[in-house]
């Protein structure tokens, strides 16, 4: 099965953000696999998923495009690819741990810049995805947390006392809002 340009543009339009999200979740170490490398691998996996679904159902792309079953199959293939690649990386992790890159500072700065740009893209995608279900106050709180990561404890939980102080409200009120945001986000991901 060969996907033509028109079909690929449909896939890319619908699943581009998901591919980027998954590519950032595969590895946090650019020395092992950059998000761009992961994205390219996921594109190949996407093509294989389309071919697999076509072979499994015996139907052509235009017949099953937009169906819920294809959508579920496609996303499952992508997440399985992510898990398999992540497992392969984890097996080799001990080889890379505590290692120092053998490149000059300019290369490191380029990697940091690319990482920051990718993180900003991921944040924009996240806010675009859930932005329509949050109220203004909830959006403002998330923006403050993104701008000041020091408000998040090492455990990954929000330091509600500091956030409440920065936002000029009480701990109780802030705790209530954070729990509501948590409930909304958990249901959307």
Q: Would you write up a description of this structure?
A:
The protein is an all-alpha fold and 189 residues long. It has two domains: 1-133, no CATH class; 134-189. Helices cover 75% and strands 0% of the residues. The protein has eight helices and no strands. Helix 2 (35-57) runs antiparallel to helix 4 (68-96) and helix 7 packs across helix 8 (171-188). The longest helix is centred in the middle third of the chain and has 29 residues, at 68-96. The chain is globular and about 60 Å long. The relative contact order is 0.08. The model has no long low-confidence stretch (mean pLDDT 78).
Instruction: Compute the number of helices.
Output: 8
Low-pLDDT parts are none
Distance between the termini: 31 Å
**Mean of residue pLDDT values:** 78
Largest sheet: none
Structural class: mainly alpha
Write the layout of secondary structure elements.
Blueprint: H1 5-26, H2 35-57, H3 61-64, H4 68-96, H5 105-130, H6 136-147, H7 160-167, H8 171-188
Features:
189 residues; 8 helices; single chain; mainly alpha
What would a concise description of this structure say?
This protein has 189 residues and is mainly α.
């Amino acid at each position: 099965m060969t996907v033509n340009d028109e079909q690929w543009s449909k896939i890319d339009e619908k699943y581009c953000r998901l591919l980027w999200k998954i590519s950032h979740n595969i590895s946090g170490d650019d020395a092992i696999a950059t998000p761009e490398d992961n994205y390219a691998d996921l594109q190949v996996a996407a093509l294989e998923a389309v071919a697999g679904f076509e072979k499994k159902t015996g139907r052509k792309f235009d017949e099953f495009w937009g169906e819920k079953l294809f959508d579920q199959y496609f996303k499952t293939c992508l997440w399985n690819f992510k898990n398999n690649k992540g497992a392969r990386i984890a097996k080799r992790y001990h080889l890379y741990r505590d290692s120092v890159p053998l490149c000059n500072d300019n290369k490191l700065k380029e990697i940091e810049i690319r990482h920051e740009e990718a993180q900003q893209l991921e944040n924009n995608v996240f806010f675009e995805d859930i932005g329509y279900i949050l109220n203004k106050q909830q959006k403002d709180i998330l923006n403050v947390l993104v701008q000041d990561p020091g408000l998040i404890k090492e455990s990954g939980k929000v330091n509600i006392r500091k956030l409440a102080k920065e936002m000029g409200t009480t701990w109780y009120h802030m705790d209530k809002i954070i729990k509501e945001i948590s409930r909304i986000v958990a249901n959307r991901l």
